[in-house]
């Protein structure tokens, strides 16, 4: 990863922050994207710098084309084109049953999820194609294949993202670019980890052969594999990070 330019979206906390910190520790120059949590993003950058790494906080709403273009310009002016895209930013979604949900809530999540992935991928591909190297990693969810109560909006949108990744992987593979998905099960220590409360988390952990739910660091290490050289002949794949709760 030494010297490579990495853009991590939604990197001010949780999985994104853990991924940014890990990749910086391996020598990457990391753009820490955030939408509104500037103090959290700056804290991530400060921690990376204190450990001897290079990082830059850059604000952007990844659903907005002008905002994405501005972010790419800022990163480009600092370090040049992006070598690795980690798309982790969580687009807001309704937590409701299908019976309670409106089309605006479900369709809106689908639209915004795919628009963000579309805009970011469009933004990084020209530089990757020119260099004949690139790594794209999208954060999915195990809910895409294994439904859980009230999570239809997230699970459906991430299922669409997973299929999008396969099509992009097929198209850009000849240019030396890999495209993969990391699909976590329940993850603790994140903004949404307490949505269902500690009792629900305990029930989830009881279903995991490894005896606990994931941490952001668990997920970050798998993301780092897809972002690095060791995964150079892996593309169009999805890695489940669930401690064995689901085995394919």
From TrEMBL:
Entry's localization field = Secreted, Cell wall
- What UniProt keywords apply to this chain's record, in alphabetical order? Cell wall, Oxidoreductase, Secreted
The chemistry this enzyme catalyses reads:
a (3R)-hydroxyacyl-[ACP] + NADP(+) = a 3-oxoacyl-[ACP] + NADPH + H(+)
> Gene3D superfamilies, alphabetically?
NAD(P)-binding Rossmann-like Domain
Superkingdom assignment: Bacteria
Q: Fetch the InterPro entries from UniProt.
A: NAD(P)-bd_dom_sf, SDR, SDR_fam
Name the Pfam families for this protein.
adh_short_C2
Any one Gene Ontology molecular-function term assigned to this protein's record: 3-oxoacyl-[acyl-carrier-protein] reductase (NADPH) activity
**Keyword Secreted annotated:** yes
Key word ATP-binding present: no
Chief localisation class: secreted
Sequence similarity: Belongs to the short-chain dehydrogenases/reductases (SDR) family.
Q: Quote the protein name from its UniProt record.
A: 3-oxoacyl-[acyl-carrier-protein] reductase MabA
Species for this entry? Mycolicibacterium sediminis
């Amino acid at each position: 990863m030494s010297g490579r330019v990495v853009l991590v979206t939604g990197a001010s906390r949780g999985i994104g922050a853990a991924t940014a910190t890990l990749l910086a520790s391996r020598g990457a120059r990391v753009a820490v994207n955030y939408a509104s949590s500037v103090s959290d993003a700056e804290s991530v950058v400060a921690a990376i710098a204190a450990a001897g790494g290079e990082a830059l906080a850059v604000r952007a709403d990844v659903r907005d084309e002008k905002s994405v273009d501005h972010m790419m310009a800022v990163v480009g002016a600092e370090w040049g084109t992006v070598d690795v895209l980690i798309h982790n930013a969580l687009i807001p979604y309704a937590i409701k049953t299908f019976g309670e949900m409106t089309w605006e809530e479900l369709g809106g999540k689908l639209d915004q999820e795919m628009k963000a992935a579309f805009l970011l991928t469009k933004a990084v591909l020209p530089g990757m194609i020119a260099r004949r190297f690139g790594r794209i990693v999208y954060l999915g969810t195990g809910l895409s294949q294994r439904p859980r109560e009230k999570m239809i909006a997230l699970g459906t949108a991430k299922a669409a993202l997973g299929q999008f990744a396969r099509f992009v992987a097929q198209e850009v593979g000849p240019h030396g670019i890999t495209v993969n998905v990391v699909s976590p099960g329940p993850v603790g220590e994140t903004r949404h980890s307490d949505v269902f409360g500690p009792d629900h988390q305990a029930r989830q952990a009881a279903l995991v052969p490894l005896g606990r739910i994931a941490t952001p660091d668990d997920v970050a290490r798998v993301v780092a594999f897809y972002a690095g050289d060791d995964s150079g002949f892996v593309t169009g794949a999805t890695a489940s990070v669930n401690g064995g709760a689901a085995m394919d």
